């Protein structure tokens, strides 16, 4: 159909394709768009050959032109169109406004009515206003593209620019309904409602496009009664395209009003992609909608991207295999309920592939949220709690029941939940803080939660309040509550944050831990790392300004970090951050609770970032191991334990009582009680032995004496053999550690160790005396020696050295002939054994005391002098006199000093004159 002409000033064309009964009054133009036109105008509209077609133009469709001017579109823009057909509407149709376009035969027993036309509404110029497209509906399907255009775009007047009010296919659920296969676009305005009883799918490899510039109210796959249908949904949906592409141009926006994505709903699978600036409650329009979000009873394969906030809204699917990315903040839930069907590699029912909340740009980096120029400054990034008690579905179907969605203005709950597993979660914060207003906070009363039996990777910058656990609502035993977590990274845990986990690969709290971590056990090859404080936030030690800042380090909120209240849940429920309670009392301390008796096989590290904070401030909380019949800790390592042997940070209790593991405060100190022999034992009785025992020269070698130094944490060194500790005795100032063998007691499957074993080197006697083993420091060693350092630490720079100041002492008594008897006792019994020189050593031991062949090459010449000079200088590479008491370290003349006199006397001996 072609109409020629142009519009006069203020003129307009009302074009209604309807049937007029000549015996009745003129029906006129339809009065309302959302009531069916009973006067069907034709079977088909726009086709050039079909029977019953309205119009006969070979090009089909509807063409409105000015024959005198090809550029004059005034009449088309001033045309309001209504079409009623029972068959097909085809061709290209371009007018100012589509008031109502229907292709429906209400008398047909099978679905009829197809809109294959490419329909474009360019913006109604007549001043009475109205949406650009009010309603397009077809009984069988829409295969053409529907486009609403306009001359401009403004958020303040979004409903008057390029708005599509409603698009409907159905309501028949017959298999012949093809649904929506064409694009629907209002890129300078909004889309109200899209309903289809058939699939929403382009039926090609190219995704169907549903684009709105400033918001989509709802897209639903439903029948005429509102029942959600199992139809697949494949589309590229962009609800706020004009905003998403120009984020910096938005001057007006909020999470609770304005342009958003409201509702996407199907009982089938959702493919493609979804993007919006925000998701949330738009308000009631023509179809009541108080339960916003994305609901797919099958699988969600689509990536879902929300630039800013999700408020009063939910993302629910049987399984969520696309990525969910929320730039700023969420009050609502993301849940994979189970119940989806699928096949192929990578399909997992009840699974969430990836979710990110609060990682968008910009995000607030300062604590004075609410005073910056950021249009979202009142909303801190992360996951928020809600005002309603936790949702407890009886089955997966309850998540999709509209009756369940009004718990907190449409937010079912404040949580992330997967029935089976989650690959990746990364969140800026988890708290009850809803909005910031300057220095004040508006908070929700029920804490948010993360629930899944398995989480492969979990990262939370500020875990201020809430729970992470398995989500097993049917569980009754504590073992039911633990989530298997692969890698855990938390910036900071507040005092009402709780975590139940097992089977982790890595687990670290980067800053401070004032909450609760529950584990069944710490395996021998696992670490649990706290970067800074394990503390009781109410402790008086934090009542100073510098420590006030430290306890809030890593949080996005205002000091003192948590100012919001919460409602206690059931006392026997892991969703309550204070569960479990010992003797029904809440415990305000930061706690690591290892529930199995003797369950600490591995290592807990406190102050792993080596913060430099005072030791007294670093450990005011508790590490608890085991459980009594009354549900209280069996052993407690804390500043005020029930037994003094477990008083932190340097407890005396042996690792065996914990399960073989340890809790260590960086820098790690010597565990004096756990040393072998114990460092606090009597020197004479326990740590005095023959020099031959220490050197390993007795037969059998099983009699060799081994010392074991134990520390509270894993230790290491770049060269962890014999340069890790220094050794001095009371008579010689020369460092003797080089004549000892020092080994980290490591297993080939786990290089971490808390033990250092020390023995003689197997060939060299050390002089009798009391020796002190001390850590290598810059003040007591040369550049060639490597200090022991604390392992299991993190942060910038090198690993922290061991705690300074410890000394492990032991005494050697002489046995130079390795007969297992003290030489002094032998000489006392027979003085003739020490005639020359009378030095307390058996003369027998000086059989080659004046041998100048110091390189053992069988020759006595100038080379020996050169080797002696090198030895005096500290280079013993070719110096072979290692079995001779007294000068194995270069003291050739045995005067107690290593200097040029030793070289001079060696030179005399080469010439045939012994120096004594």
- What distance separates the N and C termini? 130 Å
Low-confidence stretches: 248-257, 283-289, 365-372
Provide mean pLDDT, rounded: 84
Shape: elongated
β-sheet strand percentage: 25-35%
Structural class: mainly beta
Gyration radius (Cα, Å) is 41 Å
Task: Outline the biggest β-sheet.
Answer: 7 strands, parallel, barrel
Helix content: under 10%
**Strand order in the largest sheet:** 27-28-31-35-36-32-29
The total count of strands amounts to 53
Please report the number of helical segments: 10
Task: Compile the SSE list and pairings.
Layout: E1 2-4, E2 13-17, E3 44-45, E4 53-54, E5 63-65, H1 74-77, E6 79-85, E7 88-89, E8 92-95, E9 97-103, E10 114-115, E11 118-121, E12 133-138, E13 141-142, E14 146-148, E15 164-169, E16 179-180, E17 184-186, E18 191-196, E19 208-212, E20 216-221, E21 233-238, H2 241-244, E22 261-266, E23 270-276, E24 279-280, E25 293-300, E26 303-306, E27 309-326, E28 329-336, E29 351-357, E30 382-383, E31 415-418, E32 421-430, E33 433-437, E34 440-443, E35 449-451, E36 454-469, E37 483-502, E38 506-509, E39 516-519, E40 527-530, H3 545-551, E41 591-594, E42 603-606, H4 615-618, E43 622-627, E44 633-637, H5 655-658, E45 662-665, H6 683-686, E46 688-690, H7 691-695, E47 707-716, E48 725-729, E49 740-744, E50 753-760, E51 769-775, E52 789-790, E53 808-813, H8 823-829, H9 862-872, H10 900-910
């Amino acid at each position: 159909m072609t109409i020629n002409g142009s519009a006069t000033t203020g003129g307009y064309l009302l074009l209604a394709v309807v049937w007029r009964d000549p015996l009745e009054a003129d029906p006129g133009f339809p009065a309302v768009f959302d009531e069916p036109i009973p006067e069907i105008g034709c079977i088909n509209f726009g086709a050039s050959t079909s029977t019953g077609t309205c119009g006969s133009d070979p090009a089909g469709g509807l063409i409105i032109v000015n024959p005198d001017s090809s550029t004059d579109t005034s009449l088309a823009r001033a045309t309001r169109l209504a079409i009623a057909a029972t068959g097909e509407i085809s061709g290209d149709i371009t007018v100012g406004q589509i008031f109502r376009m229907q292709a429906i035969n209400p008398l047909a027993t099978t679905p009829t009515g197809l809109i294959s036309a490419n329909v474009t509404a360019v913006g109604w110029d007549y001043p009475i206003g109205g949406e650009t497209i009010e309603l397009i509906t077809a009984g069988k399907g829409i295969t053409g593209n529907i486009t609403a255009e306009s001359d401009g775009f403004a958020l303040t007047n979004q409903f008057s620019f390029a708005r599509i009010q409603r698009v409907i296919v159905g309501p028949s659920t017959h298999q012949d309904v093809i649904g929506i296969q064409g694009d629907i676009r209002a890129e300078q305005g909004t889309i109200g409602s899209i309903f289809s009883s058939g699939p929403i799918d382009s039926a090609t490899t190219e995704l169907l496009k549903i684009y709105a510039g400033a918001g989509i109210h709802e897209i639903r796959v439903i029948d005429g009664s509102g029942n959600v249908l199992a139809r697949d949904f494949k589309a590229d949906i962009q609800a706020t395209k004009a905003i998403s592409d120009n984020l910096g141009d938005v001057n007006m926006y909020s999470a609770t009003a304005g342009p958003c994505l409201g509702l996407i709903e199907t009982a089938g699978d959702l493919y493609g992609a979804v993007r919006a600036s925000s998701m949330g409650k738009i308000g009631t329009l023509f179809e009541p909608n108080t339960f916003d979000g994305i609901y797919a009873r099958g699988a969600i394969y689509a990536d879902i991207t929300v630039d800013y906030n999700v408020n009063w809204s939910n993302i629910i699917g049987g399984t969520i295999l696309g990525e969910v990315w929320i730039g700023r903040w969420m009050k609502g839930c993301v849940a994979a309920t189970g119940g989806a069907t699928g096949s192929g590699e990578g399909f997992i029912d009840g699974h969430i592939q990836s979710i990110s909340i609060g990682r968008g740009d910009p995000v607030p980096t300062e604590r004075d949220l609410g005073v910056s120029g950021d249009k979202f400054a009142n909303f801190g990034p992360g996951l928020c709690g809600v005002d309603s008690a936790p949702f407890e579905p009886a089955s997966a179907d309850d998540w999709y029941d509209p009756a369940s969605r009004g718990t907190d203005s449409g937010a079912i709950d404040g949580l992330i939940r997967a029935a089976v597993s989650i690959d990746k979660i990364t969140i800026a914060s988890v708290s009850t803080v809803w909005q910031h207003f300057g220095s004040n906070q508006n908070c929700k009363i029920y804490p948010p939660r993360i629930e899944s039996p398995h989480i492969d990777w979990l990262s939370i910058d500020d875990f201020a309040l809430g729970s992470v656990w398995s989500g097993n609502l049917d569980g009754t035993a504590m073992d039911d509550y633990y989530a298997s977590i692969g890698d855990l990274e938390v910036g900071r845990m507040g005092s009402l944050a709780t975590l139940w986990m097992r089977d982790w690969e890595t687990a670290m709290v980067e800053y401070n831990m004032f909450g609760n971590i529950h584990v069944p056990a710490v395996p021998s090859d696992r670490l649990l790392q706290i970067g800074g404080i394990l503390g009781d936030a109410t402790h008086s030690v934090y009542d100073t300004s510098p420590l006030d800042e430290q306890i809030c380090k890593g949080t996005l909120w205002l000091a003192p970090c948590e100012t919001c209240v919460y409602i206690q849940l059931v006392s026997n429920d892991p969703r309550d951050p204070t569960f479990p309670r010992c003797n029904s009392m809440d415990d305000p301390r930061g706690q690591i609770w290892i529930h199995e008796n003797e369950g600490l096989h591995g290592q807990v590290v406190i102050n792993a970032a080596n913060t430099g904070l005072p030791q007294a401030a670093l450990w005011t909380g508790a590490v608890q191991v085991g459980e009594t019949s009354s549900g209280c800790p069996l052993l407690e390592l804390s500043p005020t334990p029930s037994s003094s042997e477990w008083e932190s940070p340097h407890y005396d209790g042996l690792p065996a009582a914990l399960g073989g593991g340890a809790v260590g405060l960086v820098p790690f100190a010597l565990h004096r009680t756990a040393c072998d022999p114990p460092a606090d034992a009597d020197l004479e009785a326990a740590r005095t032995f023959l020099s031959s025992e220490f050197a390993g020269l007795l037969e059998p070698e099983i009699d060799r004496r081994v010392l074991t130094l134990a520390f509270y944490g894993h230790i290491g060194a770049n060269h962890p053999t014999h340069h890790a500790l220094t050794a001095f005795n009371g008579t010689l100032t020369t460092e003797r550690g080089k004549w000892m063998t020092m080994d980290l007691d490591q297993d080939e499957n786990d290089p971490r160790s808390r033990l250092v074993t020390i023995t003689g080197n197997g060939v060299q006697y050390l002089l009798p005396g009391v020796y002190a083993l001390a850590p290598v420091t810059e003040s007591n060693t040369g550049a060639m020696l490597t200090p022991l350092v604390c392992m299991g630490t993190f942060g910038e720079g090198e690993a922290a050295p061991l705690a300074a100041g410890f000394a492990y002492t032991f005494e050697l008594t002489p046995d130079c002939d390795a007969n297992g008897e003290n030489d002094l006792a032998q000489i006392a019994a027979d003085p003739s054994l020490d005639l020359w020189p009378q030095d307390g050593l058996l003369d027998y031991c000086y059989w080659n005391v004046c041998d100048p062949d110091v390189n053992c090459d069988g020759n006595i010449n100038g080379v020996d002098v050169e080797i002696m000079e090198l030895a005096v200088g500290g280079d013993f590479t070719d110096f072979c006199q290692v079995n001779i008491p007294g000068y194995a370290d270069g003291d050739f003349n045995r005067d107690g000093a290593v200097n040029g006199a030793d070289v001079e006397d060696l030179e005399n001996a080469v010439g045939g004159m012994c120096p004594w």
